[in-house]
Structures are given as C-alpha cells and as structure tokens.
Amino acid sequence: DLGQLKPRQAARHAPSLPLRLAVAQAGTVHPESALLEALRAQPKLFREVVALPAAPESRELGSEVRQRDPEELLALAEQAGADAVLLVGGNLDASSSRTPFSILDLTILGYYLIPTCSVRASGEATGAILSVPDRRLVTTVDAASKTWRMSPSVSRHKAAEGLSKKLRRDLLTDLADDVALAFAERGGVRIDP
Choosing a second label site near 143 at 20 to 30 A (CA), which of 38, 57, 168, 171? Predict the structure, then answer.
C-alpha cells in the first residue's frame, strides 16, 4: 500500500536528469520489454533503466500472486542505485461475440474462412513514480485503450490473444511516453516525440 511508505527526511539535493530509473511491474517477475525499451529510448531523461522483480514468488496463491511491498521495492531500488521507481500495474480484458454473419458458420467455409465473430480487447495501465531518496510518491500516470477486429469463428480465441498482446504492448509504450513527459516537465527538458 503506497499510503504506508515511511517518509525520510528530504533529500539533500534533488537528483538531476538523466536519472537512474528502476521499474517494477505488478503481477510479473520482470517488467515487459516494451516498457523498458520505450523508457531506454529517452537518454536525456534516463541514464539507465533497471528492472526490479515486483513479485518475489512465482507460485500462485489461489488467484493472486504475492506482490512485494513498496518499501521492499524502494529498498531494492536503493541497492541498485536508482533515483526513482516506476511501479506499473493494470488490467486487460478480451472477449468475442457472434455477429449477424455468424449464420455463415453453419458452412465449413464460413466457420474457417469468413470473419463472423467480433473480437474486442480493452485495457488500462497505471504507473506510480516514487522517489527513492525521500520515499514519496512523485506522480502517477495512466493509459487506456481498446481495439477490435473481426475473425473467423475457428480462430476467435487466437485473435483475442493476439489483440491482447498487441494492446498490452501499446499500453505500456503509451505509459512510458507519459512517464517521460512527466519527468521532462519536472526537469525542464525537451524530448523527442
């Protein structure tokens, strides 16, 4: 819980850009490569981007994966020499539904070749940026998106999986762009879009 962070005395001096940024993604042992690559593409802001494990255990406990406490993440980030931590989380939903064209599924050709199902995916991602030296929340950023496509009935599950993967990548890239903008605005740095 971010509200339970133990504040320290204010840092003697605010770290200057470019920062060393540690990234942890809730629900995973390692942050997605799309997120790390998008952040590393901003060398004016981040001299180094390091991955932190958000989930200390890969085994599932019921339907939940045990997450590291924010204090633990900050301690890991401090050991790694990071100036700030980006803690990322979010959710994705995908579904498929029949359309009026689904009547064509009664034929072999329709079931295998004609796009008769609507496949939808939506997602949200949120990032909390924490200062390592003073153990405070700096700001939050978020991204949301949805997409859809038509698919033949036989491949609707595979289409939903593909849409979800692409949406996840796009959301994390958008979130990384928002993180870069937040740091650029705070540091008075102009960044390339």
Answer: 57
